[in-house]
């Protein structure tokens, strides 16, 4: 545990990378029954994420909900705005083929989908109670729908109200439990630290580290764009408008694991994208792996350097 504590977001990163190594070595899994398969797969991600969102919601007090919305609104708008600028700019200048081998499809999926689990874990380590509550709102701006909306994918361009309500439900439930049940806020705060390692392992069980090699240099370019361009702008907005140290902005500078499946989903809706699916999937997967590793390191450095200023 002393070693894990020295690693940025180590309570999530160590189980995640360990599970990724297992999945990379044994792609077909190592489970032989219901319990072992559940333990060594990513089948538990959704329920663990829902529990984590409920715990995050419990940290929202009605007295500080205005500050939570303000902080979340600033960093969310900054991240989405820069993503839109990049996607439409590259589309206008270079078309679907993109630039430097990075396709437009991979760019849209990579910059418009963050890893909310990493965001939660880093805010637990480096943020205050309000920062920890931001994760509930962060869940509303990630997932495949945003990329589909931006690329204008037919009938799925409109995000269903029930999908938004479904994402918000654990947060809303957590808010009411934290407000009306005395002592539950402290219990949930402690439980998040228990959930995070299992969530990290479950996420890692779907990551194939070989995708970094398969994507080549273009996968690293996508990770660079997510961190250096989108992340930097988000940090700037957090410091400028929220008057915060900026580590929360860095915590948002990732590509979500579920973004790997988005290129194929988009190609099913619009077959004209099919030629780009294979490369885009590898590039997005590479960005997922690289940002999951680098973003906690950058956030740790930034928090230690600027948190007290």
UniProtKB/TrEMBL annotation:
Q: Looking at the keywords, is Hydrolase present?
A: no
Q: Does the keyword Membrane apply?
A: yes
State the Pfam families in the record: KdgT
Alphabetically sorted, this entry's keywords are: Cell membrane, Membrane, Sugar transport, Symport, Transmembrane, Transmembrane helix, Transport
> Where, by residue number, does the polypeptide cross the bilayer?
100-122, 134-153, 159-182, 219-237, 249-269, 275-303
> Belongs to which family?
Belongs to the KdgT transporter family.
UniProt name for this protein: 2-keto-3-deoxygluconate permease
